[in-house]
Design a protein that fits this description.
152 residues, flat, 6 helices
């Protein structure tokens, strides 16, 4: 994984036009998604539709995304050696990773539970749904503009 990322970094350094093109494409894509959210009418709430899917479906999807996210792996590879003594065992590194993983799990679980409860209450209010959709659209357009301006 690290070798693949290093290889990609080498290609991007030797061909900056490819990297700039990818950034412009990403900026345009973010802007397009944001504009879609801003221009489309907000969907009405359909009670019970969300209940058809189990929470475990979302849990499995999020777990798969996290496992395949190279930033997570790079974080562990880059962050933990800063706090390790050269004579420390790999068991110590494993224990540190386990602690951070468990702390993150409980913290993010609390965020999901609170966010889900809030979303269920707000989803029945059309004005709240419209506001959330519009704010998400504005944020995505803003991120696209910021990325485009950073490319200059």
């Amino acid at each position: 994984m690290v070798a693949a990322i290093a290889g990609l970094a080498a290609v991007m350094n030797s061909h900056p036009a490819i990297f700039a093109g990818l950034q412009w494409f990403g900026a345009a894509y973010l802007g397009w998604i944001g504009l879609q959210l801003l221009c489309q009418p907000v969907a009405r709430a359909t009670p019970g539709k969300e209940a058809r899917r189990s929470g475990w479906v979302y849990c499995r999807q999020a777990f798969a995304v996290s496992l395949t996210n190279p930033k997570v792996m790079l974080f562990f590879v880059a962050f933990f050696p800063l706090f390790m003594r050269p004579d420390a065992s790999s068991l110590t590194l494993g224990a540190m990773m386990l602690h951070v993983t468990l702390l993150s799990l409980f913290y993010q679980l609390a965020l999901v539970l609170v966010g889900n409860a809030l979303a269920r209450k707000l989803s029945v209010l059309p004005s709240a749904r419209k506001l959330a959709t519009r704010l998400a659209g504005i944020a995505l357009v803003g991120f696209g503009v910021k990325l485009a301006l950073n490319n200059r």
